[in-house]
Amino acid sequence: MVGIIKANVEHSELIAELAQQTFSESHGHSASKSDINNFILKTYNTEAIRKEFENNQVAYHLIYHNEILAGFSKIELECPNINIGDKNITKLDRIYLLKAFHGKQLGLKLLDFNIALSQQHQQNGIWLVVWTENNKAVDFYKRMGFKIAGAYDFQISETHSNPNHIMYLEYK
User: Which of 61, 62, 136, 149 is 20 to 30 A (C-alpha) from 97?
Assistant: First the structure.
């Protein structure tokens, strides 16, 4: 059984712990261990997550599989991108699933949930940034109808960045 709940500021520590683990699992090999660890500690700490809840355009959701926390998502409504001409669009900032839950269609459920939420807020589309070497994710988003709309260098440290695609799904 799958359940999705809206997270609140009280979930900040849980989200930070989950983000640290999932980012390490999916991107830990993309830079030096030191760069990855520093990025994780700076970006995915409880205080940084707590601060994001101050933005009323940001929404975090937790996904459970058989009552076990499997991952989370973060979207930001009304988040334009210079590579996309449409207005009133949503940024899918994160869909992170623990590796143990890959292959259970949870990413699809979380994506569908966030698309529906975005549409409920009269958004015209949803965009995201995905590492170009994450072929599994890039292929998944293409199957879902996303198109590559631009490029972005994801800064891991002062000396290391990873090339990313900006992908966009326009609602019909």
Answer: 149
